[in-house]
Amino acid sequence: MNGLDTDKATDGPDSKGFGMAHDDSRRDGREPGLAPALREAEPPAAAEAGAGEGGRETPAAAGAAGKGDAPLPPASPPTKNPWHHSRPRRGAPRGPRRGAAARPGLAAALIPAFVSGGLQRHFAKAHWPHIRPPLGSNWTPWLTGALVMLWVGATSLHPVGVREQAIVSTDGAWGPALGPGLAVSWPWPIGAARIEDVTTIRHLALPEGDGEHLILTRDAALVDLACDVRWRIRDLRAHARGLADPAATMRLAAENAMRATVAGMDFAEVMGAGRDALGHEAARRLQALLDRDRAGIAVDGIDLRRVDPPPRVADALRAIAAARNDAATEATQARSWSRQVIVHAQGEAGAFDKVYAQYARAPDVTRRQMYYATMERVLAQSDKVIVDAPGTTTTLPLRAAGEPSTGHDAGGGNGH
Predict the structure, then answer these.
(1) Alpha-helical segments (H) within 272-313
(2) Percentage above 90 pLDDT, the chain
(3) What is the pTM of this model?
(4) Tell me: the pLDDT tens digits for 61-113?
(5) Omega within 30 of 0 (cis) for the link into 112
(6) Dihedral through CA 134, CA 136, CA 139, CA 143, nearest 10?
(7) CA-based nearest residue to 104, from 135, 72, 127, 74
(8) E-strand spans in 102-160?
């Protein structure tokens, strides 16, 4: 009894609970070091089970304490009220009663709870005894059901906007395109959905940035060309099945179409009159390439942003282009002049053929007629005609048609 009284005098009322928990931990197969924390995790009623009325120790407790157990550690100091209120509301839990050990802090309570059988049972018994799960003492079915519903809703329901279309994949097979609304698929990973904007015009810059983009022409000249490709999704199902990387595929196809188009034109044509036709022809080639690969893309057009010679040879190439343009202009003018001369010569030759036919029928008459015609053509360019006859000199003034006659002209004159 002296040993028991000494223990009681040394440890006080709290030592009874520690002793019982220590002894119970040995009987349960648990380590003695975790007994104090386990006792603190139990309801307050269990902490007073080892003491009788008036704070007396029961025989069972005395027998447990009288065994050859190791000295028990001192009780932990009381902590702050876990409800954080000096006076809790009416009807709310009011914390530990007087004489009972205070509950440990969060960090001190979590470690033994994990070791001794689960966080759920520890919090349900020690901290929130008034909260009970709907199905007995197990939250697992409810938590599992909530997670499953969240997973199904997040991976099976897909809202589709007004400007969008969606296609649903089931086990890797794409279905038809769906319009605006709510698309439903099997949960991931069995099903999936792909949603794309099919009305917005997208732009592809070729090349990226402001660097040089040299392309070889048909006459082995270099052109620095930059353009913008306007495209949109025409068939979402074909677009998803045919292209693994749409951006990279569009860039390669546009580069191929532009180089093929420029390679069929001369430098002067690209820099001059063929510039407008270059964009249309490149867009046509690009659309043909995409249709051949079933890409589901529609090309709306290609806009040329820059068509210049390379900066290092820009001056020389501009001079060459100017010389070629001048040569082309001169050649065009020469061909026009030659056509005019040929037409005029053909007309004169036709008139001479007619005169020769008349001369063959009546040579004298034709000869005199030709003489008069020649004299008329020559005298029409003279103001006066001097007739040289033996012994006299006669001046015949000629007036243009419509001029008034004068007396001097009518009377004539001699000695002029």
Answers:
(1) 275-292
(2) 17
(3) 0.44
(4) 444 444 444 555 555 555 555 555 555 555 555 555 554 444 555 445 545 54
(5) no
(6) -50
(7) 127
(8) 157-160
Cβ contacts of 185 within 8 Å, gap of 6 or more = 155, 156, 158, 168, 169, 170, 191, 192, 193
Structural domains for the chain: 1-59+103-131 (no CATH), 138-200 (no CATH), 202-308 (3.30.479.30), 363-411 (no CATH)
Per-residue pLDDT tens digits for 338-368: 999 999 999 989 888 888 888 888 888 888 8
Contact 270, 223 (CB under 8 A): yes
By CB atoms closer than 10 A (0-12, 13-18, 19+), residue 161 is: exposed
> How does pLDDT run across 118-131, given as a tens digit for each residue?
545 555 555 555 55
DSSP string, 386-413: EEEETTEEEEEE---TTPPP-HHHHH--
Contact 257, 289 (CB under 8 A): yes
**Residues 6+ positions from 124 with CB-CB distance below 8 Å:** 131, 132, 133, 137
Local confidence band at 212 (pLDDT 50, 70, 90 cut-offs): confident
Q: How far apart are CA 176 and CA 161, in angstroms?
A: 17
Distance CA 141, CA 131 (A): 17
Instruction: Please name every residue paired with 195 in a beta bridge, in sequence order, or none if there are none.
Output: 166
Which tens digits make up the pLDDT trace of 244-280?
788 888 899 999 999 999 999 988 888 888 888 899 9
Neighbours of 17 (CB within 10 A): 26
SS (H, E, C) 18-73: HHHHHHHHHHHCCCHHHHHHHHHHCCHHHHCCCECHHHCECHHHHHHHHCCCCCCC
Residue 96 tokens, joined: 């530990």
Residue 274 to residue 79: CA distance in whole angstroms: 90
